[in-house]
Amino acid sequence: xxxxxxxxxxxxxxxxxxxxxxxxxxxxxxxxxxxxxxxxxxxxxxxxxxxxxxxxxxxxxxxxxxxxxxxxxxxxxxxxxxxxxxxxxxxxxxxxxxxxxxxxxxxxxxxxxxxxxxxxxxxxxxxxxxxxxxxxxxxxxxxxxxxxxxxxxxxxxxxxxxxxxxxxxxxxxxxxxxxxxxxxxxxxxxxxxxxxxxxxxxxxxxxxxxxxxxxxxxxxxxxxxxxxxxxxxxxxxxxxxxxxxxxxxxxxxxxxxxxxxxxxxxxxxxxxxxxxxxxxxxxxxxxxxxxxxxxxxxxxxxxxxxx
Length: 307
What we know:
Layout: H1 6-9, E1 16-17, H2 20-23, E2 33-40, E3 43-48, H3 67-85, E4 92-102, E5 115-126, E6 129-141, E7 144-156, H4 158-165, H5 171-176, E8 200-202, E9 208-211, H6 230-245, E10 250-259, E11 269-275, E12 282-289, E13 292-303
Antiparallel strand pairs: 1-2, 2-3, 3-5, 4-7, 4-10, 5-6, 6-7, 8-9, 9-11, 10-13, 11-12, 12-13
Helix pairs in contact: 3-6
């Protein structure tokens, strides 16, 4: 059960409230941001809520899962596009690059009220609307910057997106065409406690997995989409890096990702991971579908007792 108590702890008048619509979430319990304010023309402060007993984002040890940091940051994109730059509903936010560095202290157990300090730059406009931007984010917990992230993404009007995606824009049909998820890898080997949260399926090669896309999973698929979500690919990269380092438990202290093409539901996607030659702490993860590279991630790992 998820207990949301953060809103009562927010100081009164600390910015404007965040709604489900602004962060593109169907489940109100999954809204991690609570209030936002503008501090300069292209700078913002955003309050967040991390409940201490979330079954998906916390491990049995009580520590937060690394994916929580990236999901908190991802929710900034629609929030600030809509609230800060008047991007209309229905526009699509398309990831190009995402990088994050986090300290182990970011994930220590216990309810938390992080603050995100955001600067937007390289803002491109098409007519009256923002068409692309870069966000730099400092995540502050307990008075110190615990994580930093940078992301570049484009903002596509419905007509533009429809032209790019062609007949794949029907979300119900796209998800119905998803291939059945294969058997999962052992949860412990990929840094998860629950089998249903595993997104990798083993193959005959120890460095290669099939991506498990379970469209019934309520967290990876909060609402209908027409392609595999970026957050699922980020989690696949983290799980693959952990599998490469298994049995040593590791934390993805740094990750640099590139979203090259959409990963579709109706064909297998293969995740490959290899240690980076000459760098004992780095793992290169590549997602391939139909013999094309769709997504890459360079993951920098550090050993930890609780990730």
